[in-house]
Every structure is written in structure tokens, then in C-alpha cells.
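Dear colleagues,

As part of the handover before I leave the project, I'm documenting each prediction I ran so the next person doesn't have to rerun anything. This entry is a single chain, and its sequence is reproduced below.
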Amino acid sequence: MTNRVGLWIDHQKAVIVSISEKGESVSKIESGAKHLEYRGPTRTRNAYSTQYGKGDDQLDKQFEQQLHKYYAQVMTHLRGAESVLVFGPSEAKSELKHLIERNKGLRCEVHAEPADRMTDRQVIARVRTFFASKPAAR
């Protein structure tokens, strides 16, 4: 059975379109990741202080942990896929492509393309068009 997956992704949400011989399905995943700005205590710190930027580092780590969980959720939808198209406006597509290629459990061909913000219908149309131009491997 052929299974192809196309997904539009940024750091906030992913729209996943799976196409198989049984038909199409669309899933959405929200990341919940927010990159917050550290406001810190009201006292002034200099650049040589040992605590300078400590709050920013902690927020960056939290953001990275949230993204890691988000990417893991997205990758569960890719199991069994033979070909994957990843597209979107931010570096999230490159980060996910790298994780897919490093994952030994996923053996699929991965394509990454830039894209602007899109509606769900536009995402579905783009995935259909991409895979219609490529013959299914059997």
C-alpha cells in the first residue's frame, strides 16, 4: 500500500495530509510552544554578571523542549509513509526534515520546500499537486 504524507509546518501548528489507496485524511497539531521574553528583576545587571541572560537561557530551553515534543507528535503521523513533503514559512520545516532523516524508524523520501502561510484547503491542494506529479513507488 502506498502512503504519502504532506505537511505544512511552522513553530505554532502543523497541517498533515495523508494520501493512501484508501483515501485522504487531514490532521492538525498545535505546538503550544511560545517564545517568551524574559523580563527579569528590576535591578540592573551588567554584561559581566554571572547571572546575565540566565532567564533568557531558561526560556529558550523551555521553548526547545516544547518544540521537541511537538516534532515527536508530528513524526508519529509519518509512520509507514514512503514519501514526505514538508513545507512552510519558517525554519521548522528544515528542523523537522533533519529529525526525519536522523530517525532510523522512518524510512522515507523527504522533500522540503518553502511556502507562505496557507489555508487548510491550499495545503491539501499543494500536497495533491505535488504527489500527482510523482509516480507512486511500489
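The longest strand covers residues 13-20. The two ends are 8 Å apart (CA to CA).

All the best with the project,
I.
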